[in-house]
Amino acid sequence: MHTEKIVNYYEQLPEENTFMDIMADITHKCNMTCKNCYIPNRDVPDMDLEKFRDFLSRLKGRCMIRIVGAEPTMNPRCNEYIEAVFEFGHRCILLTNGLRLSHKSYVDKMHDTGLRHVYLSLNGVDNDDWYEAIDELRCAEKKISALRHLKKRRFILDTGTIIVPGVNEDAPGALLELFDKENINNVLMRIKNVGQLGRYQTDVDDNVKLNQLVRLCSEQMGVSEDYINSFRDQKLYGMYTEKNSILFPLREGNKILNRGRWVKITNWDTDNESGIPDPNSQRRGRITENFTVAPLYEHIKMNEGGY
Amino acid sequence: MSRTRDAIKKIAIERLGIELTDETIDSGKAFKDIGVDSLDAIELVVSVEDELDIELSDERLDAVENIKNLADYLSEFD
Lengths: 307, 78
What we know:
Chain A has 307 residues and is α/β, with parallel strands linked by helices. Chain A is 28% helix and 18% strand.
């Protein structure tokens, strides 16, 4: 357990919860071996569904429960975890690599749970060379298939793209080209750099920094750096100010999040005294092995190589 | 009776846990004042589109400041 650099680790009972977004790692199994993975340990049992239900029943506030893994669809009861989230009145988003969502029947199954919001990782966009260099799998065809199924079922779509220097710095523009081609007009594109947690391929010194992410998005997405920077320090989702994120619509004047094309640039760099991205976040929590809630990155760091 | 208003009320209670009356809708209160935050707003819009099998215009949605604006826009599909 790492403790030397952690500045503010604590745990809350579900009844005491103060977090808005809570990660539920329902499995540590995965069907990919990405080079950037903050929880690379596969030897952890799946989350107990009944304990999860009990946790949700006691959880204070209406939270966004992020169903994550490793790869959450590797849990054969993934749909039941999602159904439980809705049963207890919380919101839900599924964070996935999308391989299983390349099958229409699986997307239909997720839709049947009441799920309407999916975060799909698209590190290589539609470029198999990029996927191979970052995620060690040529999977562009499956990703695009997942995108099409999600669009057809009108899911709210977030995509996630890690920018790796020397590999996919052209990804912001490539995303727009792909979405033009697939007629995807409502999406939140999350662009980030490499986080130095767990397994990663880029050290802090070589990482793309926040200002460089802004420049890449500006150059490739048809908006000025001044426009992007005007959204710094604005409240995310109307609630939280986060120093490491910038959220903005590509079309000025768009008001409804995810309606039209939006971008969220996030700095996952760990070049700070805590050694984690976004230290002291009041927004992101994580369910611990003991079904308490802890601040996300602090908990990951404390358990690096473990849970 | 309005099928679009009924859809808003149904989705608000089922998806957001918020009970909306005609009075609340017609009050013109801002989304946040009736407990609808930015994440709820997109869920409401997408779910209404799904329920009614319609597609709303982004440009028209830019002008939607509150639940009454949304109900008025949707009434065009009644």
